[in-house]
Amino acid sequence: YNKKIGVFFMVIIIQLLVFLLITLSTILVVSIPVTLASPGEWEQSKNLIYTGAGLWAGLVILTGIINSLVA
Known about the structure:
mainly alpha
């Protein structure tokens, strides 16, 4: 019984991580081209974009690690 609860909890965590990954991916797909196309915006926004890309990469790695524990 406890093992089923643990697996259920892990599945919920994976679903939340995937949701965050999809949301962040959508935001980055829209915001990066807009930032690059706008004059002068790159200099103001590059730290935010680098932070978003790092967060995205971290979510990919974390999701993969958590998924490997469940599977």
